[in-house]
């Protein structure tokens, strides 16, 4: 649950930019732009998971279990 909150709060600008990229890719029918949007979105989720479950913060590691 905390990971979802972190993604929506801390990564909101990245999520918005991924949505804009996906929309532009859909309008232009360009699969490379859509893939770029998916990579940006995946990076935001990976960052949030790493921040919530990182090795440097063992007290938060229980979120990932």
Please explain how this structure is put together:
The protein is mainly alpha-helical. The chain has one domain. 75% of the residues lie in helices and 0% in strands. The protein contains three helices and no strands. The protein has helices at residues 2-10, 12-28, 31-53. Helix 1 packs across helix 3 and helix 2 (12-28) packs antiparallel against helix 3. The longest helix has 23 residues, at 31-53. It is elongated, with a radius of gyration of 14 Å. It starts with a helix and ends in a 12-residue tail after the last helix. The model has no long low-confidence stretch (mean pLDDT 79).
Helix content: over 70%
Number of strands: 0
Show unreliable segments: none
- Tell me about the largest β-sheet: none
Measure the end-to-end span.
Answer: 11 Å
What shape does the CA trace take? elongated
| Structural domain count | 1
Radius of gyration: 14 Å
Number of helices: 3
- Average pLDDT, to the nearest integer? 79
Written as H for each helix and E for each strand, in order along the chain, the element string is: HHH
Structural class: mainly alpha
β-sheet strand percentage: under 5%
């Amino acid at each position: 649950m905390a990971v979802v909150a972190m993604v929506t709060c801390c990564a909101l600008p990245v999520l918005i930019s991924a949505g804009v990229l996906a929309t532009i890719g859909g309008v232009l029918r360009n699969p490379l732009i859509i893939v770029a949007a998916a990579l940006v979105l995946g990076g935001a989720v990976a960052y949030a998971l790493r921040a919530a479950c990182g090795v440097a913060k063992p007290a938060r590691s229980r979120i990932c279990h």
